[in-house]
UniProtKB/TrEMBL annotation:
Annotated gene: OR4E2
Lineage: Eukaryota, Metazoa, Chordata, Craniata, Vertebrata
Entry coiled-coil feature ranges: none
Membrane topology term: Multi-pass membrane protein
Biological process, per Gene Ontology: detection of chemical stimulus involved in sensory perception of smell
Organism from which the protein derives: Bos taurus (Bovine)
Family matches, as InterPro entries: GPCR_Rhodpsn, GPCR_Rhodpsn_7TM, Olfact_rcpt, Olfactory_Receptors
Keywords: Cell membrane, G-protein coupled receptor, Membrane, Olfaction, Receptor, Sensory transduction, Transducer, Transmembrane, Transmembrane helix
Protein name, entry field: Olfactory receptor
Xref: Gene3D superfamilies: Rhodopsin 7-helix transmembrane proteins
Length: 313
């Protein structure tokens, strides 16, 4: 054990997205804008829902939680990536690397479970509307959110344990711009095949199972829409299509990254950028542009703020 501690690496070095300084500056500017938009867009959704009583229903309660998770998820990796784009040597301490992959998997898994819960919410609302108030009251919603955070924590603890139990004595270069389990365990000074398979069975199974559950729920919803009125079908399709777009944007990269143990990290960096950067900034746009209630609530909130400012002056 003493020998292991003496040879254990104390920091990792990221290769980053590119070694071309011109591209790094362009990436820094583009990703900085995207990160700011992610923060502002998701905070705007949360504030709108909190200060609009008519939006205090399960669907928007889950949407506000999704916005919170998107802020946390992007904040785990993006600030460190932006810092690395300005530095020639991109490093992270061993402890910070482990913390980063822990929170990365915590928020990613919480989002997977939340998207599944949101699909269940839409299924109950559309397929059994008479039972919806009893099945999805706020007490149940809070319990579901607590359960998804608990599930995300357990999943993340398992992933972190599988990573830190391995010996790391060099090399210490990670072919990525953030710490994730697959590229980190590749640097372990031992055979990681079994660990890699455990990671696939954990992350990959969760992603695939939840995605299949989502697809099944939407198939049932589409079948049940035949009995709805034209206006009911239009409203249900608008809500469900927005949600399914978010699901596809998030689950696609996750399933690609975590369902195969033999990974090409260079090509996977592009996919990682998509689900750590692009998806969180698109979610507010998808839900606001396609949701009249949210857009109207934002307009009323803005008008109320304008009127309150005029009264103060």
């Amino acid at each position: 054990m003493d020998a292991l501690n003496q040879t254990r690496v104390t920091q990792f070095v990221f290769l980053g997205l590119t070694d071309n300084w011109v591209l790094e500056i362009l990436f820094f500017m583009a990703f900085s804008v995207m990160y700011v938009l992610t923060l502002l867009g998701n905070i705007l959704i949360m504030v709108t829902i909190v200060f609009t009583p008519r939006l205090h229903i399960p669907m928007y309660f889950f949407l506000s939680n999704l916005s919170f998770i998107d802020i946390c998820h992007s904040s785990v990796t993006v600030p460190k990536m932006l810092e690395g784009l300005l530095l020639e040597r991109k490093t992270i301490s061993f402890d910070n690397c482990i913390a980063q992959l822990f929170f990365l998997h915590l928020f990613a898994c919480a989002e997977i479970f939340l998207l599944t819960v949101m699909a269940y919410d839409r299924y109950v609302a559309i397929c059994v509307p008479l039972h919806y108030p009893n099945v999805m009251d706020m007490r149940v919603c809070v319990q579901l959110v607590f359960a998804l955070w608990l599930g995300g924590t357990i999943h993340s603890l398992v992933q972190t344990f599988l990573t830190i139990r391995l010996p790391y004595c060099g090399p210490n270069v990670i072919d990525s711009y953030f710490c994730d389990v697959p590229p980190v365990i590749k640097l372990a000074c031992t055979d990681t095949y079994l660990t890699g398979m455990l990671i696939v069975s954990n992350s990959g199974t969760i992603s695939l199972f939840c995605f299949l559950a989502l697809v099944t729920s939407y198939m049932v919803i589409l079948v049940s829409l035949r009995k709805q009125s034209a206006e009911g079908r239009r409203k249900a399709l608008s809500t469900c299509s927005a949600h399914f777009m978010v699901v596809a944007l998030f689950f696609g990269p996750c399933i690609f990254l975590y369902t195969h143990p033999d990974t090409n990290f260079s090509s996977d960096k592009v996919v990682s950028v998509f689900y750590t950067m692009v998806t969180p900034v698109l979610n507010p746009l998808i839900y606001t542009l396609r949701n009249e209630e949210v857009k109207n609530a934002m307009k009323r909130l803005r008008q109320r703020q304008v009127f309150s400012m005029k009264s103060c002056t």
